[in-house]
Design brief:
two-stranded antiparallel ribbon, 2 strands, binds geranylgeranyl diphosphate, about 290 residues
Length: about 290
Amino acid sequence: MNFRSQLKSFQDKFEQHLLSDLPESTRRPARLHEAMNYSLQAGGKRLRPVLVFAGHRLFPGNLDPMAAALAVEIIHTYSLIHDDLPAMDDSDLRRGRPACHKAFDEATAILAGDALIPLAFEQLFSAYRHSPECGLNLVGLLAKAAGSERLVAGQIEDLLAEGEAPDADTIRYVHANKTSAMIEVSLQMGFSLGAKNGDQELFDLVGEAGKFLGLAFQSIDDLLDVTQTTEQLGKDASHDGDSGKMTWISLLGLEKAQSLAQEYTENAVACIEQIGGDNQFLLDLANHMLRRKN
Ligand code: GRG
């Protein structure tokens, strides 16, 4: 299967499970489940689930990575819902449609995000309870990546830096945590469900690949914010400049920010080559991410 067909096949399989494995919108309290499903089923690139599958594919094992893929996308979706709130990034548009707090209301959006967090861990519990050592390991990895020293750390430093003069240390910290944390852990969770689960050196290398992929992804996200339209992005364009965000572009300018994205991708590719295994899909994905337009 070529890269594009494989990517589509991963995305399609994931969408099917998202429809069948999660609480239905009609289940009481319906407004809450409706809001959770509204945001979860709004499409999106499903990059993090694809990374779980790609991480698993490196050295495949017997455990199904689907629940891990659902768990990371559920956490990612909660973070988007909360990020869009007026108290944070104040965005009206997400994944090509009104943000959750616009389609419902702020209180419902906060609660939908809140309810998604335990739902992610419940997925891991249900799917991997018969392999408790592996299941607990995944719970720990995801909890740490989503916690106060990674995802939430990146988010608060990003908010605190708004309007400040850009500096490289802050930008790197924010990107490494707000963006790379979830990308890293997606690859590592997939890898941990595979045959080389106990290999610490490989696990660290997989994390390193994820870190660079995340740094590249965020640099490109910042470039797209200034080069693409709202329609192309499915979220508000020129948002970073409007809200005084610290980005590589504000520090280095467009051209240098573009070279940095290229450099991070090359670093990711070097790690992925060193990992070995069935790494062709992940290599292709790294290059695909560099060329993305939304
Ligand atoms: C609220 C704790 C908390 C964290 C929010 C996700 C996030 C952190 C902020 C959103 C803004 C942003 C630029 C985050 C960096 C990560 C990122 C680029 C998220 C968007 O991910 P995509 O492009 O979105 O993969 P889709 O919709 O395709 O899933």
